[in-house]
């Protein structure tokens, strides 16, 4: 995916989506992350380069969170900007997501 960087260190995968997680990019992001999850117990999503998230992006985050919980792993969101934090707050996702 041209709008995502990733880095694997042992059982930790850090992915960095860029610009937008919208209806067009969310399925691509999900597929790319899923393809790298083999052996991963800790998923870190660095959102420093993300400036927009739609409901499709929220669904992908919930799917990835459930995937990590099913494998007894965890998922953290890093560097979440104020605008996206507000979206998480409005949708009630602040209570579900781990934001560092």
Topology record:
Elements: E1 4-9, E2 12-17, E3 19-21, H1 26-34, E4 42-46, E5 50-53, H2 55-70, E6 74-78, H3 82-91
Parallel strand pairs: 2-4, 3-5, 4-6
Antiparallel strand pairs: 1-2
Helix pairs in contact: 1-2
Tell me what the structure shows.
The chain has 100 residues and is an alpha/beta fold. The chain has a single domain, classed as STAS domain (Transcription Regulator spoIIAA, 2-Layer Sandwich), CATH 3.30.750. Helix content is 35%, strand content 29%. It contains three helices and six strands. It has helices spanning 26-34, 55-70, 82-91; strands at 4-9, 12-17, 19-21, 42-46, 50-53, 74-78. The strands form two sheets. A four-stranded mixed β-sheet has the order 1-2-4-6. A two-stranded parallel sheet has the order 3-5. A hairpin with a 2-residue loop joins strand 1 and strand 2 (12-17). Helix 1 packs parallel to helix 2 (55-70). The longest helix has 16 residues, at 55-70. It starts with a strand and ends in a 9-residue tail after the last helix.
| Fraction of helical residues | 25-40%
> Helices and strands: which structural class?
alpha/beta
Order of helices and strands: EEEHEEHEH
Main pleated sheet:
4 strands, mixed
* Count of the domains: 1
Mean pLDDT: 95
């Amino acid at each position: 995916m041209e709008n995502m960087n990733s880095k694997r260190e042992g059982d930790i995968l850090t992915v960095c989506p860029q610009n937008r997680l919208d209806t067009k990019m969310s399925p691509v992001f999900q597929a790319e992350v899923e393809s790298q999850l083999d052996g991963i117990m800790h998923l870190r999503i660095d959102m420093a380069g993300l400036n927009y998230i739609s409901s499709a992006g929220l669904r992908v985050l919930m799917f990835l969170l459930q995937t990590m919980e099913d494998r007894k792993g965890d998922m953290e969101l890093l560097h979440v900007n104020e605008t996206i934090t507000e979206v998480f707050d409005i949708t009630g996702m602040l209570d579900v997501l781990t934001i560092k």
